[in-house]
Amino acid sequence: MALIVLAIGVGLAAGIFTLLLHRSAHGLQDILYGLTDESLSAASNLSPLSLLALPVGGAVLGFGTREAMRRWRSPVDVVEANALHGGAIPLRDSVLVCLQTIISNGAGASVGLEAAYGQAGGGFASVIGEWLRLRRADMRIIVGAGAGAAIGAAFSAPLAGAFYAFEIVIGAYTPAAIAPVAAACLTAVLFARLMGLEAYLIALPGAKAITTADYLVYAVLGVACAVVGIAIMRAVTWLEFHVRKSFVPEHIRPLIGGLLMVPLAWITPQALSSGHGALHMDLGAEVALRFLLMIFLVKIAASTVSLGFGFRGGLFFASLFIGTLAGQLFAGAIARMPWLPVVVDPSDAALIGMAAMGVAIVGGPMTMSMLVLETTHDFALTSVAVTAGLVASTVVRDTFGFSFSTWRMHSRGQNIRSARDIGWVRSLTVGKMMQRGAETAPSSMSVEEFRRRFPLGSTERVVLVDATDQYFGIVETPKAFDTTVKPETEVGCLAIMQDVALEPAQDVRTVMKIFDASEADDLAVIDDEGHVLGTLSERFVHRRYTDEVEKAQRDLFGE
Predict the structure, then answer these.
(1) CATH code where residue 465 lies
(2) CB–CB of 265/54 below 8 Å?
(3) CB within 8 A of 418, min separation 6: which ones?
(4) Domain check: are 224 and 133 in the same one?
(5) How many angstroms separate the CA atoms of 509 and 416, rounded?
(6) Residues 174 and 272 grouped into a single domain
(7) Of 81, 106, 105, nearest in space to 93 by CA
(8) What does the pLDDT look like over 398-451, one tens digit per residue?
């Protein structure tokens, strides 16, 4: 009950942060581009001079980021925090991400504010959780609730926000998390509606009835969206990698990205920002396929350039916008094939494409399906969205294996595939498990002296060290008492595992692999200079790992 009450407070804060971030970014766009009541991406006429906001915003972002990185490391986002750090997010990281995203989106870069929304809600929850000293499991739940509440408030969609928390931030549907997450999302959405924050998506479903054939057709659309989604994620990472390898200083890259965005904005303002206004304008309108294809390609290029050159933000709403374009292009392509016995409604296809592309890039098939449901209130269309989303998810998972957030972390050395908690694996290290005070002996000691010092039954194994007191190997005590071994023989001749040892920083999974490869029962633990710190047995490692897995399972289900 206390966690639910805390979640309500976090949800209220998430709603407030969402409102402030939304108005800050769009207020900045209004100032820079001279907008009145229209959205940047739907602007009918932008002066060429106003597009200088892109490189200027990039310069401000680049130099500001350089100063921040001099003092701090790269900021931790909510997915990484829940996967690796038990939900802990430093306050300065959340502030930095929000400021960077506001500058990026406010300057017109093709990125969304959803990264800032989730970071603000989850980051606030993390600070409160650390202040209250919550348990690891409760901390992860409250961080997920805060992030999901912010997303729910942004879209005025509590179900979508709740499933965002489960699928993207917490990494599982857990009984213990249902009530806190739901409470936070409902509170945030109610507050946002009370304050007049309009939903981003207002779409009406087509009048065409959903048939069995439609499921098959939209499954093909799900495959197409998966292919496009993978291509976008790889393109962003490829460009980011080569930009980082280039001679261009890091603080100059956003400025160059802003300059590259200018010609794309000349082609169509729909390339700017995340595309909220453009989605409203294009959805259901009678637009030529060539124009839709142009917007589709320009928007992908704009998002790739923005993220590749260092603008901060995400692909959440951009993926939804690109998905609506993909759906309309798909419907248009079907209409040009009169020999096919199916008719696809463009509005329905746009919404299904939105869900499938969102699943392909962001992840969370139920998140996107609930977004369609709360947007259209059409259960039949939602069931098709579930089908297309699951198809897209399956294709991406089997051929690529990552969502955009986890893929970017993977490309930077963090081997995680979801927000599932694996932080305890990294924290369970050799240094915490090893037994100190190992029995040691010089490798030059004679077998006769060894027998005298370590009588049979006193110890099973002895760690040997060389003349410089560095690790030499392990000798099993019974072997030294073998009658075939001459008493004057150096005990070092009986040593095994001479090239295998553990280090204190290695985690439990790494250790288990080493034990499997070496087929050893015990291994020595050594420091950087080769001195013996202790020993560790395979039996103890497996017991500790099993205990931690069982504890994680109990925390997962709230037992």
Answers:
(1) 3.10.580.10
(2) yes
(3) 83, 171, 363, 403, 406
(4) no
(5) 14
(6) no
(7) 81
(8) 888 777 877 766 666 566 666 665 666 777 888 888 888 788 888 888 888 888
Confidence at 465, pLDDT banded by 50, 70, 90: confident
**What average pLDDT does range 510-515 have in this prediction?**
89
Same domain, 156 and 222: no
Burial of 60 from C-beta contacts in 10 A (0-12 / 13-18 / 19+)? middle
DSSP reduced 3-state for 442: strand
Task: Please work out, in degrees rounded to the nearest 5, the angle formed at the alpha carbon of residue 77 by the alpha carbons of 558 and 146.
Answer: 50
The answer to whether residues 331 and 459 belong to one domain is no
Residue whose entry in the numeric block shows the structure tokens 């106003």: 50
Tokens 């802003």, located at residue: 258
Q: Is residue 238 part of a domain?
A: yes
Asked if the model's pLDDT at residue 205 lies above 60, the reply is no
Residues in the chain: 559
Amino acid in the structure at residue 97? V
User: What residues contact 1, with CB distance under 8 A and at least 6 apart?
Assistant: none
The reply to whether 487 falls in a domain is yes
Contact 89/103 with Cβ under 8 angstroms?
no
Please state, in angstroms and rounded to a whole number, the distance separating the CA atoms of residues 244 and 247.
Answer: 8
401 backbone φψ class: left, alpha, beta (φ>0; ψ -120 to 50) = left
The dihedrals phi and psi of 526, each to the nearest 5 degrees, come to -125, 160
Asked if residue 83 is part of any domain, the answer here is yes
Residue 206 has pLDDT above 60, yes or no: no
Q: Whose CA is closest to 259, among 408, 405, 54?
A: 54
Count of structural domains, the chain: 3
Token pair recorded at residue 440 = 């040691």
* Cα–Cα distance, 145 to 179 (Å, whole number): 10
The answer to whether 448 touches 197, Cβ cutoff 8 Å, is no
Q: Which of 173, 199, 225 is the last residue of a domain?
A: 199
The string over 71-99, giving b where at least 16 C-beta atoms fall within 10 Å of a residue's C-beta and e elsewhere, is eeeebbbbbbbbbbbbbbbbeebbebbbb
Angle at which helix 2-33 crosses helix 136-155, to 10 degrees, equals 40
Read off the amino acid at residue 239. Answer: L
